[in-house]
Amino acid sequence: MAQVSTVTSQAGAVIRHDVAMRFLFVGDSMTIGSAGDFTWRYRMWQHLEATLGDGGYAITGPRTELYDLGTNAADSSAYGDPAFPAHARRHLAGWGEGWLHMAPVIGDTVTATRADVLLVSLGLIDLGFYTDSEQTALNVREFIAAARTANPSVKMVLLPVIPNIRAESDAPFAAECDRFNLLLGKAVADLDNPSSPILLVSHPAGYDIHTDTYDGTHPGPTGEHRLAGAFADAMHQAWGVGGPYAGALASA
Q1: pLDDT tens-place string over residues 43-53
Q2: CA nearest 26: which of 107, 111, 99, 121?
Q3: DSSP class of residue 167?
Q4: Could you tell me which residues come within 8 angstroms of residue 110 by beta carbon, excluding any fewer than 6 positions away?
Q5: pLDDT tens readout for residues 156-210
């Protein structure tokens, strides 16, 4: 996979966060998680508590559930840590949902939740089942436009696709993942602006689908930390938000 570096025209700038920042997680099965998972959302919540804490942020979104593989529905509240607060479980993520599904709903969601920072991990499901790299990239642009229509100053942090185990035996799929990541980088370069900055997160350092996932796709505890760390470090390095990732792989 080609390495993707953090891209932003606002690198080094400090994003004001003297009032609570409202974070919205947007993602697919890697983000919603399944029954029993901690989720990388949980790891990010711990990081935000440690670095922003006490009124410095809020997590928002229309959903709170995990996906239950037994019922094939997003109807589980069985998080790995039962003490994960209900208000911090909020998200806009769905098992089997991608840019194709989120682009039509992100505008209304941003309006309803008053989200101003979107943490987005999408694309693998699109490329695997719904759209090719070119079509997926067009859906990214539609998503960005809709989010900005709802909130012209919305900030977005986008994770490139991390090819899963399928890419090891399916060369055309692997090529589509690489092609999409290049197109995602181009979209960020084209659309980033000072009033609504966009970050393209670097590939999570050390992420290995054989050790950081439990099935070649979905993150286990160490993978959750690496994903949260990639988002946290990108925001800190580029915007001065929070601090270096406060999680520890040793605690996973």
Answers
A1: 999 999 999 98
A2: 121
A3: G
A4: 24, 118, 146, 147, 150, 151, 154
A5: 999 999 999 999 999 999 999 999 999 999 999 999 999 999 999 999 999 999 9
Q: What is the DSSP letter of 126?
A: I
Contacts of 7 (CB under 8 A, 6+ apart): 185, 188, 189, 192, 199, 200
- Chain segment 21-60, per-residue pLDDT in tens: 999 999 999 999 999 999 999 999 999 999 998 889 999 9
83 φ, ψ (degrees, to nearest 5): -85, 0
Q: Which amino acid is at 10?
A: Q
Instruction: Check if the beta carbon of residue 179 is closer than 8 Å to that of residue 130.
Output: no
Kindly give, in sequence order, each residue whose CB lies less than 8 Å from that of residue 154, ignoring residues fewer than 6 positions away: 110, 115, 116, 117, 118, 147, 148, 196
Question: Are 177 and 170 spatial neighbours (Cβ–Cβ below 8 Å)?
Answer: no
Q: Alpha-carbon distance 5 to 130, whole Å? A: 26
Token pair recorded at residue 193: 């602006």
CA angle 178, 183, 186 (to 5 degrees): 135
pTM, to two decimals: 0.93
3-state secondary structure of 27: strand
CB 122 within 8 A of CB 98: yes
**How many other C-beta atoms can be found within 10 angstroms of the C-beta atom of residue 192?**
19
Asked if 159 and 227 touch (Cβ cutoff 8 Å), the reply is yes
